[in-house]
Give the backbone structure.
Amino acid sequence: MAKTIIREDAFPRIIEEYNSGGKTAAYDYLRSHYGIRHPYFVINRIKECGKYSYDADTDRFAETITSDTDSVFMDLDELCNRTALSSERQAETVTDPRPAAMERLVHELISDRLLTLSRYITLDSSTRTILVDQTSLSADGYRVVTH
């Protein structure tokens, strides 16, 4: 008895059967087209291959996105189907990481500046006194101006 090998190029058709008709439809497809007696192992192999993700809640397979560069460019179906694209773009929220990065940079710069000032200036809130170390300021090249 020869061993039937199902290669990964057949996975999309099997997944299509699974997503449209469920597990039994996929099992029937595998039994009728490939003569497989135990199709559970083929479905298990599809789950473990890494190219497709399985959502147990919806009981469906989806193709996993492999890299960010693939999602940047539009494929031919997206270009031809402009109505679906526009509704998808409206539903998708675009978050720009630049404001958060700028906010972190500003906080870092302010904290560095306050750390430098804390070497020379001490605030005592209980006595409402500000102590300034003028000798250290002058030694480090700063000029003290009061008005």
User: Anything to note?
Assistant: The longest helix spans residues 98-118. The chain has eight helices and four strands. The helical segments are 11-21, 23-34, 40-48, 68-72, 76-80, 82-91, 98-118, 134-139.
